[in-house]
Write a structure and sequence with these properties.
Strand 7 (159-160), helix 8 (165-174) and strand 8 (179-185) form a beta-alpha-beta unit. By secondary structure, this protein is α/β, with parallel strands linked by helices. Helices cover 42% and strands 19% of the residues. The protein binds adenosine-5'-diphosphate.
């Protein structure tokens, strides 16, 4: 697939100007105006069409869609789905001790653990601060089970794989949390199949800029 660069080349900018001024216009006519062959222009026209700047109609030619780079970027972001970006969830069982949960958090290098029952269904969430709170002044973290201190269902914000990433991001902001479990509905409850975190959103943000494709 040709790259649909956010940064348009000089020639692509020129093509846009020509189409803006003269569209609808055939590829042949654009090529004439630039003193180039139709074949030379083909990749540029494909890029501009794929990126959404131009549209092409058979036997009519190319015309300008009128969408700005920002509008096209917004459209693209609104299409991002959870399933393209989810990462592996780290789950623990309800009987795990707070001590072991803290070790798991370090070993797995995550900030949020999801607590599940025997059916792998979500029953709770453990954040760093939940574990810190339980640790302060508590002598025996080995005999304290995580289900005593976790945030429990039904008060857990979740998302599903076909949801929009932007909606998950909004939940992170409004609920002031670091992550959301991605769940699948089963007869036993909500099976945990992934996670979306602030890091996920940060990565996508950076990709939008560094990725050559919009
Ligand atoms: P931290 O407490 O380490 O800053 P969070 O901001 O994610 O991390 O967690 C704040 C509180 O919200 C914690 O008590 C945690 O159990 C709870 N929490 C975390 N994730 C969720 C979630 N998806 N839904 C509901 N509560 C959550």
């Amino acid at each position: 697939m040709g790259g649909d660069d956010v940064e348009l080349s000089m020639r692509q900018e020129k093509i846009l100007e020509i189409v803006k001024a003269n569209g609808p216009i055939t590829g042949e006519n654009i090529a004439e105006q630039l003193n180039l062959t139709r074949a030379t222009l083909r990749p540029d026209l494909a890029i501009l069409t794929m990126a959404g700047f131009l549209d092409a109609r058979p036997r009519v030619g190319y015309f300008f869609t009128g969408k700005t780079g920002t509008e096209l970027l917004t459209e693209k972001i609104k299409k991002y789905k959870i399933h393209e970006h989810l990462s592996i969830p780290i789950v623990v069982n309800e009987e795990m001790s707070v001590y072991d949960a803290i070790s798991t958090m370090f070993l797995e290098d995550v900030g949020t653990l999801f607590v599940v029952d025997v059916h792998s269904c979500l029953t709770g969430v453990l954040s760093r601060k939940d574990l810190l709170r339980a640790s302060i002044g508590n002598q025996d973290l080995h005999s304290l089970s995580v289900h005593i201190i976790m945030t429990r269902m039904p008060n857990i914000a979740v998302c599903r794989k076909d949801d929009l990433l932007i909606d998950a991001a909004k939940q992170l902001i409004t609920k002031q949390i670091d992550g959301l479990p991605v769940v699948k509905d089963t007869e036993q409850g909500l099976e945990v199949i992934g996670r979306i975190t602030k890091t996920t959103i940060t990565k996508v943000f950076v990709e939008l800029i560094t990725d050559e494709h919009i």
